[in-house]
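Sorry to interrupt, but I need a hand with the structure work. Please put the record directly below this note.
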Amino acid sequence: KSFILDEANKTDKRVVLMYQGDSSDIKSYKNLMLDGFLIDYSDNLEEYANSIQSVIFHPEKYDLFVVDFDGTIVDTMPMWRHICADFIKSENILIEEDVNQLVKSLTNSQIAELLQRKYLTHLTLDEVMNKLVEFIRVQYRKQKIKPGAENLLKELRKHGKVILYSATESSLLLDLLNIVGIKDLFDGVYS
């Protein structure tokens, strides 16, 4: 978040943050971006067009667009919501509880510890972590860009600097940016 504030302070115009998240995340960004402009992003870019008209038709108001990646530009949210259960199933282990709820607020190492302790006891912690990371990498590479996202990014780029900001690990992020062919539409990538 500090990078967003640093970038926003470099401009005297308003900043657009395109982001999909829950209301607590949105409040956090509103507090951070004191003179910024926040757009809560919808799942469908075509439906989103009405909300962003002021950006597209009045580009002189903006010179920095900060864009989130997961759930905003690519449709990764269903993957992330089910990644642990899908991983355990890929190991041919039956689960009865909602493991995705159990790991919702855990770090990757905490997730690996929980999965090793509860489901994958035949593997070492390092083996679980390595398998989980590889499973995530394979699944992440299959994700698709949302309809209209590339055109929107091209349009925004005509009017200002477009920065990609993501909590996703940088090697995953850069790999998928290259796969979907939009890496060059960003002036900077922060992960």
Remarks:
- Strands lie at 14-19, 37-40, 62-68, 161-165, 188-190.
- Residues 22-45 have pLDDT under 50 and may be disordered.
- Residues 103 and 111 are 6 Å apart (CA to CA).
